[in-house]
Structure to design on (380 residues):
């Protein structure tokens, strides 16, 4: 027998789809950079392991790394110190730590729809109710403040935000960050700001909630920026009063984040900058290819992503998102059906451009053929 809460969550639909794919399918479903970590960082990891950094470390993370992260956030709030920083086992554990620390049973939590797949299940695991707020193409996938005012209730505990967004690629303008902060103030809410794609932006820098709202907990990660999703290093930036509470809970989940990968990340923060820039340059070029080809595909409309490495076209085909993704899978292309990210992801596909230019062109050619076949009525 398992606890009731285990029945409240499922393995993500994305995984099920991948498992059904043939090995030579073009994969436009990847949620991680198709790059290796910068070579200096890989070398630093080997050194760390060889030189004996293989033991437990402090639960909030090694001091030098916390200090280095704090330094970065001091430009946003000059009072930031390492006491505000907790190193986590990736952003995923950071999100779980925040949920365990902030949400009580019976609370309501405002979550983006469509939004990253962990926000609602985490709320449910705590006995809280996720209350989805809409992100629509008409509003360039930005939150609608009037709708948030209608959804908020005396039970609302927190607002979860994600900019740059997975799956939409939207990046909040500064004024959206200011308005959402004022909204949280008005209703006495915590802000859980998932900023893991912060450094993967194409138009303008992303605006962090740190230094704008003193109610914000920032969830961040090195997974995407240093192309090291398997290394499991992320971090939380939290107000001084909240950080010790978060750290207690975090200790009960992981004891401490992995020591050798923290040492390597510390090296990467100084040495990995050029590798990150060149990765973002490549994503920018691919984004141009993808948006150009998609905008010429019958039945699709697309808001060009301003950040992350996803594009989220909406389709007007007579298909559900799962059916469309299933058809494409049978034609040899893996995409992610938009509805795994929430009800408003219906009639959308998420395509990841963490794939080579060649694979993007091949995958998009299949997609365009499929769209043409649908238009001609030749798809069963
Ligand atoms: C929006 C968002 N937040 C958090 C994560 C978690 O990343 P990680 O646990 O690898 O740091 C992801 C991963 O895909 C994501 O897309």
């Amino acid at each position: 027998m398992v606890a009731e809460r285990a029945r409240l969550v499922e393995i993500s639909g994305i995984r099920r789809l991948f498992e059904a794919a043939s090995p030579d399918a073009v994969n436009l479903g990847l949620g991680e950079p198709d790059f290796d970590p910068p070579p200096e960082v890989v070398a630093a990891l080997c050194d760390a392991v060889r030189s004996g950094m293989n033991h437990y470390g402090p639960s909030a993370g090694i001091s030098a790394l916390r200090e280095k992260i704090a330094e970065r956030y001091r430009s946003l709030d000059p009072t930031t110190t390492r006491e505000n920083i907790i190193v986590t086992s990736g952003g995923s554990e950071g999100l779980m730590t925040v949920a365990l620390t902030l949400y009580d049973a019976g609370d309501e939590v405002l979550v983006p729809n469509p939004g990253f797949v962990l926000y609602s299940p985490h709320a449910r695991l705590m006995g809280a109710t996720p209350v989805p707020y809409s992100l629509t193409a008409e509003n360039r996938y930005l939150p609608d403040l009037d709708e948030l005012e209608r959804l908020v209730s005396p039970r609302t505990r927190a607002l979860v935000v994600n900019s740059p967004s997975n799956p939409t690629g939207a990046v909040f303008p500064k004024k959206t960050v200011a308005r959402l902060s004022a909204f949280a103030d008005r209703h006495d809410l915590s802000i859980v700001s998932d900023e893991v794609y912060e450094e993967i932006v194409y138009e303008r820098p992303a605006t962090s909630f740190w230094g704008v709202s003193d109610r914000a907990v920032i969830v961040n990660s090195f997974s995407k920026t240093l192309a090291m999703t398997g290394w499991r290093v992320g971090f939380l930036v939290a107000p001084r009063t909240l950080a010790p509470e978060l750290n207690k809970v975090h200790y009960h989940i992981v004891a401490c984040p992995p020591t050798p990968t923290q040492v390597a990340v510390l090296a990467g923060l100084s040495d990995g900058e050029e590798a990150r820039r060149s990765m973002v340059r490549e994503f920018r070029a691919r984004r141009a290819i993808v948006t150009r080809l998609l905008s010429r595909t019958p039945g699709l409309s697309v808001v060009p992503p301003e950040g992350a490495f996803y594009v989220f076209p909406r389709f007007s085909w007579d298909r559900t998102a799962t059916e469309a993704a299933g058809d494409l899978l049978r034609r040899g292309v893996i995409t992610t059906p938009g509805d795994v990210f929430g009800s408003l992801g219906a009639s959308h596909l998420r395509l990841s451009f963490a794939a080579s230019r060649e694979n993007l062109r091949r995958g998009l050619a299949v997609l365009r053929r499929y769209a043409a076949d649908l238009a001609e009525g030749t798809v069963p």
Summary: The pocket of pyridoxal-5'-phosphate is lined by residues 31, 90-92, 116, 162, 166, 194, 196, 221, 223, 229, 234 (CB under 6 Å). The chain has twelve helices and 14 strands.
